[in-house]
């Protein structure tokens, strides 16, 4: 079927490729005209403006947006303004599900369906397929079924999902009304933060398994290492993460990627350790807070990212100021870590 | 080759089966004679006592122990007392790596090698193979190579690990001197706690996505739900965990198992939510503390287990007592959850 | 001066008493007419309806509301509807500061000032005075200065705050425009949660200092206590919290109250450990998340309260289900704690 | 009475001064002979060596040690070697209570009493008195009663503690057998970390209350600030911490110190935010882990200190590496914070 794709960044471009490969017709638009030209070369129908983009879509128009969360809302409004009853806007970005709930209500008044699709799979989706978490009205979601089926990974090789298992074994799922897709994707990413942090913390502990070999100052500001004999291991991090991939309880795709990264450079020298967060982790926490659900692991993972961005510095200065005030403790200078 | 196995619980028995399947000769012992008899029926050589167990082993004797951490130390001593220089004791249980370091030193004096093998794979190991994290002297570890190769899953089908990749791609790894195996397994389990908790918290948030549909008391002791319109989703937990298995970033074996459990019963009614911890999570935290490595996610996961066992109750009573003291706040009675 | 007080619960009634004691005239209203009657007996001017309440106020009317957060917004609207330009509505409850920002904007259109006053001091405020954190337009706040001065504790005995120190040493502070008062009070309560939890966790650890005397099961589901000889202390909790009140770094009013509660009953048998939270802790976390500020301690304190309310149970069931799935681990039954 | 003091750092020197002020005779020793000379000028009896120090003590000798935890054990051994049955060694430093338990057992064999005294009060103790948490044999503790009474703050002015209230209202407490004093002090400091962090996090949130005024990049790596209108407050941190000191629920000595520090410099420019930890926080956590008591707040406070020392960097690099691997996300460069 025909589908319009607006936003040809990493994700959008690959989705278009995967769709065209499977025979779908794609109308594409991006503010970066070079991105459009690239896609056209690959077989897509290009548009030079938002207006042209909508105009080139066959009715009922299906416009899929893959844009940064910060601008999605505005663009949805612009696209919807050019649409007619029966048309469908799909937001496949990492938008806040609140916006999906609100947008859907607004567009419903005009007879336009709003479908929110949480999309996981990253840069690997082109090859592996994307896991799709979908929210929206039944009819619109059904209309897009072949698009979802193409983008999703499909059933596992050799598996034969029972008829009544629905689409989940194929990698896409209608999760509920508008907003439900982004809600489920939001929680997915919240979990992702937690899982990533679990690996990162554990591997960091492995890395310090040789702490007993290091010299340690013996002053009142330094906690002594009680039993250095138990910290004499030089752990081969690439090898350990590799072995965990084979038969261990913590095998996962994130572990596969971690092992690969450490194999490339066990010191990860190219990274500074400044970890971005792109919204979903925050929103997941807010949902937990709203509904009174404890989420200590997910919040710890999020807050570590904030700290990695330098945001705990003033709090830490306060701690040093208190320590100085009650105990005369003077901060130790930073040593080469 | 021949290998002795002592402790025929869930793990030990399956490891014997996997070893025998691959042609190894197994001498087995357990305080439960029925367990021994069962293994003998399957082809193992049984022993009726510790002494007989050691006596039936060919030199150099290789005695593998799969026992609860609490008793392993004592049994290692008993086995070692019956052994001779050149023999090897292998501890495949979830023992504290400190004990491995100490035991190895003690046994080395007598010329006996101590090999600690962290073993992951659970009840699935018989079929999938076990991921093995090994610590100990080079020679002893080399001597046991075929045993490790049998127990481990082996290389991924179709993969062809390069010669210099070592044994990790086959699912077993010599991690360092005695203690290194249990150290790496300990951290593995610490990570496992964190990963499990990340899923559990996220799914718990999904479950509360319909909180806006529930009635809510409007009193000074209850925080109002600000925007009930955003919490109107009835999420199908088995379907969502299933769809995440296909192409999402958080795909993992633990997710596979979670989806399976939820498919069996979405309410998990058979469980009470009292989560045990068996030592490694605690030890991982202690290692983090000793070496000054932050582990907020792993500790949050551990502490939630403690809380699930009722251990935060007195702290919570203190909070209620303080609230009463400063604000006259009276505890709300427990309502049917 | 004259001030109207609506909401004669614990807080409101005591504030009226403190105001009248200092010579202020109080017009009072509550949906519970008995509360009004009680205050009238103490010298207040009673009102039988919202309309009468507003009618009895001299211009410019100053109506102070002490109501549950869940209903404050609605009542502010009703009061404001009866008011005229130049009048002032004061919200002294634990409302969300977002509402204050929004209400202030709405009321400003009608020429009515909205002053939000975060009020700390609990049931002790009548005697000790209330700490007041104030947001609102300069003129309105200035107009209410004598009211704030009466409600606040005043300067420490013997202290002589310098002229340029402002009102903070007297226990009240104009923190900024409308919303700033509730914002500062919100964070105050967020901190309160963290401080309370720090004491509660520590005292809970003291309570378990005799863990080495207890029997402990030695099975694979129970982590062994390595060194029972270090956990042989029966700590006298009332005495320890009392001694900490004298010269220690952690002396505080909350510690005073805690010591008092433990002296009354060291087992706190009257409490079940179900700790309510009334909004500010949640909002503090949301502010931290919005602004990217790490708040691991404050969030841990909040999530423990959620857990105490039973909200981690499904997550814990999931953990048990995973443990059963990979390791065949069966939950231990609950034993008498 | 006579008491020997070894270790004339910040704490030891002030304790000697406070003791001499109250008429006690002090024999003093320090490896730094200038420190000894200074104390002698103030009226103490100096010693030039450990041997001379012990020799100058009257029997039963009472030697109080105020030394860094890392060297205390060694010095206790040296002092005890010069002592006789009936003598008393007092460790007033921040030693691990495990050591106290072990030392006490060792010294008991020689008839020497070991008394461990947790000492809180910091540099203010000279003036305010020290809060003393004492472990050791009854007789030895009783023998030292006047020393403890002098060092402690004494009863609150105007208070008249009842006879059966024991010594706690005077600021010192015999908490149990050897080790109990350091155990209680350890938990005291664990709590201290949590309380400090609660204030620091909250104040950091206040500081960011103007986040809505700052520019914010709109890209896929930056989470948008949804409602900038709610983050327009420029909070006066010195004034707010000052007002909280008067009548609020979170009034405390640490808050007094914090307000003082912020009054001195609201930006705390002299600090870098590298917060040391000196052992007790770590040990408190280990005790919580050993005994299965949840301590999420205390651990979060500890781990933040580790992070402030740069110890989360490798974990954070791993997170960035994973994000790059699955999503092609490139780390944002550090901007001037």
From TrEMBL, chains A, B, C, D:
The UniProt record lists the 6-phosphogluconate dehydrogenase C-terminal domain at 181-333
Identify the stretch annotated as signal peptide in this record. none
Keywords assigned by UniProt, alphabetized? Gluconate utilization, Oxidoreductase
Pathway membership of this protein?
Carbohydrate degradation; pentose phosphate pathway
Q: What does the record list as GO biological process?
A: D-gluconate metabolic process; organic acid catabolic process; pentose-phosphate shunt
Pfam families, alphabetized: 6PGD, NAD_binding_2
Decide whether keyword Oxidoreductase is in the record. yes
Q: Which InterPro entries match?
A: 3-OH-isobutyrate_DH-rel_CS, 6-PGluconate_DH-like_C_sf, 6DGDH_YqeC, 6PGD_dom2, 6PGDH_C, 6PGDH_NADP-bd, NAD(P)-bd_dom_sf, Pgluconate_DH
- The entry's protein name is Decarboxylating 6-phosphogluconate dehydrogenase
The organism is Mesorhizobium tamadayense
């Amino acid at each position: 079927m025909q589908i319009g794709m607006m936003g040809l960044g990493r994700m959008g471009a690959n989705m278009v490729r995967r769709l065209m490969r499977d025979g779908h017709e794609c109308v594409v638009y991006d503010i970066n005209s070079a991105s459009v030209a690239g896609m056209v070369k690959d077989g897509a129908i290009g548009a030079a403006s938002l207006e042209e983009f909508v105009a080139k879509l066959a009715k009922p128009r299906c416009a899929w947006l893959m844009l940064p969360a910060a601008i999605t809302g505005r663009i949805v409004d612009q696209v919807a303004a050019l649409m007619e009853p029966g048309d469908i806007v799909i937001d496949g970005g990492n938008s806040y599900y609140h916006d999906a709930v609100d947008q859907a209500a607004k567009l419903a008044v005009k007879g336009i369906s709003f479908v929110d699709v949480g999309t996981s799979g990253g840069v690997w989706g082109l090859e592996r397929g994307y896991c799709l978490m979908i929210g929206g009205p039944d009819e619109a979601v059904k209309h897009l079924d072949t698009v979802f089926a193409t983008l999703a990974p499909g059933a596992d090789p050799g598996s034969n999902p029972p008829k009544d298992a629905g689409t989940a074994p194929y990698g896409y799922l209608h999760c509920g009304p508008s907003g439900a897709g982004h809600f489920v994707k939001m929680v997915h990413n919240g979990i992702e933060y937690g899982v990533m942090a679990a690996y990162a913390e554990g591997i960091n502990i492995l890395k310090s398994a040789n702490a007993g070999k290091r010299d340690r100052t013996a002053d009142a500001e330094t906690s002594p290492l009680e039993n250095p004999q138990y910290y004499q291991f030089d752990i081969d991090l690439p090898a350990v993460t590799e072995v965990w991939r084979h038969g261990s309880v913590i095998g996962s795709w994130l572990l596969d990627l971690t092992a690969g990264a450490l194999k490339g450079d066990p010191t990860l020298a190219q990274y500074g350790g400044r970890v971005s967060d792109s919204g979903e982790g925050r929103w997941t926490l807010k949902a937990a807070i709203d509904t009174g659900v404890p989420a200590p692991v997910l919040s710890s993972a999020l807050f570590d990212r904030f700290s990695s961005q330098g945001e705990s510095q003033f709090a830490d200065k306060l701690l040093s100021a208190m320590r100085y005030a009650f105990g005369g403790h003077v901060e130790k200078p930073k040593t080469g870590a």
